[in-house]
Amino acid sequence: MQAATHPIGLYLKVWLLLFVLSTFSYLVDFFHVAGYLRWMLILLLMVAKAGLIVAVFMHLRWERAALIYVVLAPPACLLVLAWLMWLESGYTYFTRLLYFR
C-alpha cells in the first residue's frame, strides 16, 4: 500500500499560519492585555495552533472518522467535566460565604 503524499506547499502554509498565530500570542503580552480577555486570547490561539499541528503534521485530517473520534473524544469529555466543575465551584463558593461566616 502506497503512503499518501501531500504537497510541500501545504506544510509551508500551515507553518506560516503557525508563525502568525504565535506572533499574535506574543502580541497579547506585548500590548499588556489583561484579565479574562488575555486568557481567552491565549487559550484560543493555543487551541488553534494545537489543532493545526494535530490535523496536518500528525496527519489526523486524512484518517478515518473512527480514529479521529478516538483521539478527540477523551479531551472533549475532560473539557465538559472541567466546565461542570467550574459551574459547581461558584455554587460551593456562594454557600461557603453564606453559611461559614
TrEMBL record:
It is found in: Cell membrane. InterPro entries: Cyt_c_oxidase_su4_prok. It is a multi-pass membrane protein. GO terms for cellular component: plasma membrane. The keyword Transport does not apply. The keyword Cell wall biogenesis/degradation does not apply. Its main location: membrane. Keywords: Cell membrane, Membrane, Transmembrane, Transmembrane helix. Pfam families: COX4_pro. The chain crosses the membrane at residues 12-33, 39-60, 67-86. This is Cytochrome C oxidase subunit IV.
